[in-house]
């Protein structure tokens, strides 16, 4: 494999995918927690959800989003993204979706903190639907990364 990573490229890619799996596990779980947390507002159960969400953030979500971005950008640099390498349309599209997904992550963390203050105003059905966003993003991102249609 050409590029500054040489033979280490596949190792970096393997760890990129490992931390993608951790990040996605957290992003599938947090919106479920938010639904239960919102339902529990005003009951003693709410504090337990607050604790679970804080733990999920600290142990899974925050470290894995950082590592996925770091390793992903190293892979992208190796492919020549920052030198305007040709044939990387798939990577630009992937970056756009990952950027939006990172915004979703920020929103979900923000809503979790809002619920911790006892405030929560999203209709339960909407909150459940919003929880499907990461699944949709994963489908698009993996197709772009593996099939590289453009
Ligand atoms: C955070 C920003 C990210 C950047 C900058 C990034 C960048 C990259 C790059 C440059 C590659 C190497 C592609 C190749 O060797 O052909 C790669 C591989 C891959 N990425 Fe990402 N990625 C990011 C996030 C994600 C996310 C969120 C997912 C899934 C939800 C993902 C899934 C994959 C997969 C499955 C591969 C392996 C593709 C293959 O070798 O066939 N990446 N990524």
UniProtKB/TrEMBL annotation:
<keyword id="KW-0812">Transmembrane</keyword>
<keyword id="KW-1133">Transmembrane helix</keyword>
<dbReference type="GO" id="GO:0005886">
    <property type="term" value="C:plasma membrane"/>
</dbReference>
<comment type="subunit">
    <text>Homodimer.</text>
</comment>
<dbReference type="Pfam" id="PF03653">
    <property type="entry name" value="UPF0093"/>
</dbReference>
<dbReference type="InterPro" id="IPR005265">
    <property type="entry name" value="HemJ-like"/>
</dbReference>
<feature type="transmembrane region" description="Helical">
    <location>
        <begin position="129"/>
        <end position="147"/>
    </location>
</feature>
<comment type="pathway">
    <text>Porphyrin-containing compound metabolism; protoporphyrin-IX biosynthesis; protoporphyrin-IX from protoporphyrinogen-IX: step 1/1.</text>
</comment>
<dbReference type="GO" id="GO:0046872">
    <property type="term" value="F:metal ion binding"/>
</dbReference>
<feature type="transmembrane region" description="Helical">
    <location>
        <begin position="88"/>
        <end position="108"/>
    </location>
</feature>
<keyword id="KW-0408">Iron</keyword>
<keyword id="KW-0349">Heme</keyword>
<feature type="binding site" description="axial binding residue">
    <location>
        <position position="16"/>
    </location>
    <ligand>
        <name>heme</name>
    </ligand>
</feature>
<feature type="binding site" description="axial binding residue">
    <location>
        <position position="94"/>
    </location>
    <ligand>
        <name>heme</name>
    </ligand>
</feature>
<protein>
    <recommendedName>
        <fullName>Protoporphyrinogen IX oxidase</fullName>
        <ecNumber>1.3.99.-</ecNumber>
    </recommendedName>
</protein>
<dbReference type="GO" id="GO:0006782">
    <property type="term" value="P:protoporphyrinogen IX biosynthetic process"/>
</dbReference>
<keyword id="KW-0560">Oxidoreductase</keyword>
<comment type="function">
    <text>Catalyzes the oxidation of protoporphyrinogen IX to protoporphyrin IX.</text>
</comment>
<keyword id="KW-0479">Metal-binding</keyword>
<keyword id="KW-0472">Membrane</keyword>
<feature type="transmembrane region" description="Helical">
    <location>
        <begin position="6"/>
        <end position="30"/>
    </location>
</feature>
<feature type="transmembrane region" description="Helical">
    <location>
        <begin position="60"/>
        <end position="82"/>
    </location>
</feature>
<dbReference type="GO" id="GO:0070818">
    <property type="term" value="F:protoporphyrinogen oxidase activity"/>
</dbReference>
<keyword id="KW-1003">Cell membrane</keyword>
<comment type="similarity">
    <text>Belongs to the HemJ family.</text>
</comment>
